[in-house]
Structures are given as structure tokens and as C-alpha cells.
Design a protein that fits this description.
With about 350 residues, the protein is an alpha/beta fold. About 50% of the residues lie in helices and about 15% in strands. The protein is globular and about 60 Å long. The C terminus is likely disordered. Bound molecules: iron/sulfur cluster.
């Protein structure tokens, strides 16, 4: 990782030292963090502390050294090492609505004496009674009432609204880069364990972009799929004259829809449910954000790669499927494929591309 990349990530790395150790709860994916905060705990997304580490590749290797398979998703191995490195003793693990690798990871933690709390999304987003039941169970496990968590939602809504504005400034005003958008939205999974501090940082960022000149790139791209593990995708795209105006799953972490209750909020969140809800959201963004092409990022060894076939069938835009295994820079073959894809989009245009104002 270059010094610049480390500097870009640093503001987003939660300072675990500032929290009492027995209050930190690791999360393996986005869960209703309002419940965790309401109970007086500090949610820390294990994915974020893994990927913001100065040596994320080393963390993957460390997990392999103690027996996690080479042909398993690197996010799983990174999360394992993050727990070990930071001595995290309590974990909420998503066992339905993410992947079976996470379920197995939870079993590894159990075998090592780490307290784990399972959380399951319903199979269907319309099964709100199942979701409510899971939320109540999670609240009970953490010793808080579900209704208190609904109160906490109001504070989180305020923080989330700043991130929604950062997202809007990315595609509507073109003053926020795709990489900044990615970092802010992906960090909403745990709001760095401190929603007040996170909200303040977001407010300062919004002030800092108010006088910016709009980005003049003419190609507008969407990045869909799970957040990319590779380091330099966004700077490389920018060097090719591409403005990433949509980060699909990261935006979902920010809970982009207006909602009155936690059940409504987490049933509209598309990530844990079927691909068809995700496709509706993607199609709407393509139209609203005037997107010219899509990069579908797929993690090596992830079941979500299978959905590429459905995505290609439904979305009528150029799509590049990008597969990556470990943290680190893009390799030469990936760069060549991206360059060829962007050239292809440019050549498809019969009229000169114009900057969208
Ligand atoms: S990338 Fe896929 S396999 Fe890896 S943790 Fe996420 S859902 Fe599971």
C-alpha cells in the first residue's frame, strides 16, 4: 500500500484504543448497529479494520498459516486475523443473508472461546415478523430493549443523512470523487464505532467540498457488487477519465431510503436479500445517475459470482466483471481489461461525450 493510500484510509480507521475493550463488539457484516449502540456497546466492522490495516495482505497470510484454506474468500481470512490482532472477545455474526463462509467463521470463533451472537436476515425481505424477532433477540442478547434501539435510530438517521448528501454530491454535483464516496459509504457499516464523531467528520468533509470545481470526467461508471478488496481501482479509473458515480453495496450500507422503523429500514436494505431487489436499485441508479457502464466486482471464491449471469441478462449496459482475490494493487491483466472496457464504452458513443452538469 502506498503512503498516499494509507493516508486516504487513516481518517476511516476506528481508534480502538479509545474504547473500553469489553465494550467492543465485532460485526462480520452490516447489522442493525442501532441496537448495539443502544446497549452501550461499540460496533466495529471487522472488514473495515482488516482492509484499513497497513498490511492487509499479511493478515490474509496469517490466517492461512493457522489453517484457513487458501481457496476461501480473503475477507473471511482478514476478519479472522483482525479479531486476533485486536483481541476482540465478542462478535455478532450474520448467519443468514451473507454467506455460509461467515457461518463457518463463527464456528471457528466459538471453537476458540470467543463469544458469538448469531443474527439472521429473513429469506424474504417481506418477512418483517422474522426480522423483528431477530432484532428483539439481538437486543435481548445485548441486554437492551428493542424500543430503546428505535430511539437510537433517530441519532443514526441524522448521521446517515450527511452520507446521503455526500452520495448526492458525487453524482448530481460531481464534486465528490468515486473513491471518497466509497470510503464514506462503506464506513457507515459501523460509523467507526462512534456515530457522533463520525457525524462531525462527515460535516467537516461536506464543508470542505463546498467550493470544489466539478469533476470533468466524461465517462460515468457504476461499481456494483461487494466493496472491492483491491487498493487502487478508483485512482486507476480516474486516471482513465472515469467518474464513479455509484457504489452499489456501499450505498446500501448507508441505508439510503427514508424509513420510520428499524424493521422497515433493514427490510429495504437490499444486500441480504435476493438479487432482484438489488437489480431494481441498480436500474434506478443507472437511470438517475446517467451511468454509461458497470463494473461488477466479484470476490474470488464468493458465491455472489454466480449472480453475474442474472445481472448481465437484465442490465442493458456494457458490464465488466472484475474478479480479485487479495488486497493489493491491480495487476497488469486487470488494468488492461479495464482500459479496454473504457475504450469500448467510448467507441460505443456515436456523439462526442460531454461532461454532465
Ligand atoms: S465476499 Fe462473498 S464469500 Fe466473502 S465474506 Fe462476502 S459474501 Fe462471503
Amino acid at each position: 500500500m502506498t503512503k498516499q493510500q494509507v493516508n486516504n484510509l487513516l481518517p476511516f480507521l476506528p481508534d480502538l484504543e479509545k474504547f473500553p475493550k469489553d465494550k467492543i463488539v465485532g460485526i462480520t457484516s452490516t447489522i442493525p448497529i442501532e441496537i448495539v449502540f443502544a446497549a452501550g456497546y461499540v460496533p466495529i466492522d471487522l472488514n473495515n479494520i482488516f482492509i484499513c490495516d497497513t498490511s492487509p495482505n499479511r493478515m490474509v497470510e496469517d490466517a492461512e498459516l493457522v489453517g484457513l484454506p487458501r481457496n476461501t474468500c480473503a475477507w473471511i481470512k482478514g476478519m479472522y486475523s483482525a479479531v486476533k490482532k485486536h483481541g476482540i472477545r465478542k462478535i455478532i455474526s450474520v448467519i443468514q443473508g451473507d454467506c455460509s463462509n461467515n457461518q463457518a467463521l463463527m464456528e471457528v470463533f466459538v471453537s476458540e472461546g470467543i463469544e458469538t451472537i448469531p443474527f439472521a436476515y429473513p429469506h424474504s425481505k417481506t418477512d418483517t415478523s422474522f426480522l423483528r424477532d431477530q432484532m428483539e433477540k439481538l437486543a435481548a442478547s445485548l441486554g437492551v430493549s428493542y424500543l430503546k434501539a428505535e430511539e437510537t435510530k433517530k441519532h443514526l438517521d441524522w448521521v446517515r443523512s450527511s452520507i446521503h448528501e455526500i452520495d448526492r454530491l458525487t453524482w448530481a454535483e460531481n464534486v465528490v470523487t468515486g473513491e471518497e464516496n466509497h470510503l464514506w459509504t462503506v464506513s457507515t457499516s459501523d460509523v467507526m464505532g462512534d456515530f457522533e464523531a463520525f457525524g462531525e467528520l462527515a460535516g467537516k468533509f461536506l464543508q470542505s467540498v463546498s467550493g470544489r470545481e466539478p469533476i470533468k470526467h466524461v465517462i460515468r461508471l457504476g461499481v456494483i457488487g461487494i466493496p472491492p478488496i483491491c487498493e487502487d481501482l478508483y485512482p486507476f479509473l480516474s486516471s482513465l477519465g472515469v467518474h464513479v458515480v455509484f457504489n452499489e453495496i456501499q450505498r446500501q450500507f448507508s441505508m439510503p431510503y427514508q424509513s420510520d422503523t428499524l424493521v422497515e429500514q433493514y427490510s429495504r436494505y437490499t444486500y441480504p436479500y435476493d438479487i432482484f431487489s438489488r437489480l431494481e436499485d441498480i436500474q434506478e441508479a443507472i437511470h438517475q445517475r446517467r451511468i454509461h457502464g458497470i463494473i461488477h466486482y466479484v470476490q474470488s471464491f464468493c458465491h455472489r459470482h454466480i449472480q453475474d449471469k442474472i445481472i448481465r441478462k437484465i442490465i442493458r449496459l456494457p458490464i465488466l466483471t472484475l474478479d480479485c482475490d487479495r488486497p493489493g494493487p491491480l495487476d497488469g491483466a486487470m488494468m488492461t481489461r479495464i482500459e479496454a472496457f473504457i475504450e469500448m464504452i467510448k467507441s460505443l458513443k456515436t456523439e462526442p461525450l460531454e461532461v454532465i452538469k
